[in-house]
């Protein structure tokens, strides 16, 4: 081997025999000791490799967990931002559909919702559409000023939203269906109650609203309002038959319901009536026709019989 250092145990054994000239027993002891040392070094090396691999694995797992956490946080941030902008868009859309003074729906959006309701299948048997006008509103505006007039308009709108509702009559609340309230224009309002068990409940709800307006302590809104503000109300109750009767004529029906309710309201105003003016209607051959109260009772109770119908006389 010359001066070249041994590279394995076989070359080391030859090197010892040639260079050291030991007796056989010492040679065996020396080589055995060298082998033990080498074995220990191999064990230590394998342990070191295993620990290094484990450390690398743990470090990789930690880095992977950190990356996943960062991605989750970024995803959460993105979702939060997305939800924020969705809420902003929804709020702006809602604002665009509402009257800025009363926060009620504007009339155009109300009519779209009413038309959509009439053109769809409904489980309800009756619905109602009403028009409200503040009695002698011009007098308040002329004598007390527009600021007081605005306060009256806003207060009546608030009472309308509080009192015109059907939810307290329902055994099962229907998600997605809400009572609709809108500003018709000026000091007039309109409303739709989508889910009624019978026609008389509409009169009960509208009367509750009328009484609530008159019993409100108006002096809290302005000390000069010592007499109660009053409202005139006209209500048209519609018997909801099969959707086939309404589909295709929903827009005309929506306009007719508002027109009839408006005429009833003006009739009540002209008579200085203390009660609600109300009629019951149903759809016959695509037209809205009035039905007598006794026929409405039969329809409500489920008794069979042909209706005697007539057109509404203005």
Architecture of the largest domain, CATH level 2? Answer: 2-Layer Sandwich
Portion of residues in beta strands equals 15-25%
Order of helices and strands: HHEHEHHEEHEHHEEH
- Alpha plus pi helix count: 9
What is CATH's topology name of the largest domain?
Alpha-Beta Plaits
Report what the structure shows.
The structure is a single chain. By secondary structure, this protein is of the alpha/beta class. It has 2 domains: 1-96; 105-301, Alpha-Beta Plaits (2-Layer Sandwich), CATH 3.30.70.270. It is 55% helix and 15% strand. Helix 4 (137-144) packs antiparallel against helix 5. Mean pLDDT is 81; it is low at 88-93, 170-177 and 303-314.
Secondary-structure topology with pairs:
Blueprint (H helix, E strand, L loop, with lengths): L8 H11 L4 H73 L8 E2 H12 L7 E9 L2 H8 L1 H18 L16 E6 L2 E9 L2 H17 L15 E9 L3 H4 L3 H21 L6 E8 L2 E5 L1 H9 L13
Helix pairs in contact: 3-8, 4-5, 5-6
Characteristic terms for this protein:
rod-shaped; 15% strand; Alpha-Beta Plaits; 2 domains
What is the structure about, briefly put?
Helix 3 (107-118) crosses helix 8 and helix 5 (146-163) packs antiparallel against helix 6 (199-215).
């Amino acid at each position: 081997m010359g001066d070249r250092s041994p590279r394995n145990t076989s070359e080391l054994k030859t090197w010892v025999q040639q260079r050291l000239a030991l007796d056989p027993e010492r040679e065996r002891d020396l080589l055995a000791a060298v082998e033990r040392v080498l074995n220990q070094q191999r064990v230590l090396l394998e342990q070191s490799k295993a620990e290094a691999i484990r450390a690398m694995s743990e470090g990789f797992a930690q880095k992977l967990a950190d990356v996943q956490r960062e991605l989750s946080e970024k995803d959460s941030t993105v979702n939060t931002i997305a939800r924020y902008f969705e809420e902003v868009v929804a709020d702006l859309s809602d604002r665009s559909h509402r009257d800025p003074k009363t926060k009620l729906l504007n009339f155009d959006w109300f009519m779209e919702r009413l038309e959509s309701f009439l053109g769809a299948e409904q489980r309800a048997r009756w619905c109602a559409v009403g028009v409200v006008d503040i009695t002698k509103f011009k007098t308040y505006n002329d004598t007390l000023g527009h600021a007081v007039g605005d306060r009256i308009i806003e207060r009546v709108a608030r009472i309308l939203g509080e009192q015109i509702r059907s939810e307290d009559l329902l055994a099962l609340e229907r998600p997605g269906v809400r009572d609709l309230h809108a500003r018709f224009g000026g000091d007039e309002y309109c409303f739709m109650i989508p889910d009624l068990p019978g026609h008389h409940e509409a009169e009960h709800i509208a009367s509750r609203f009328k009484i609530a307006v008159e019993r409100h302590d108006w002096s809290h809104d302005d000390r000069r309002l010592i007499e109660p503000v009053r409202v005139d109300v006209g209500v048209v109750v519609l018997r909801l038959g099969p959707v086939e009767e309404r589909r295709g004529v929903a827009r005309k029906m929506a306009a007719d319901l508002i027109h009839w309710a408006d005429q009833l309201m003006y009739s009540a105003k002209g008579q200085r009536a203390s009660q609600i003016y109300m009629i019951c209607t149903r759809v016959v051959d695509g037209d809205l026709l009035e039905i007598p109260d006794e026929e409405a009772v039969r329809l409500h109770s489920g008794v069979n019989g042909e209706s005697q119908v007539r057109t509404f006389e203005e």
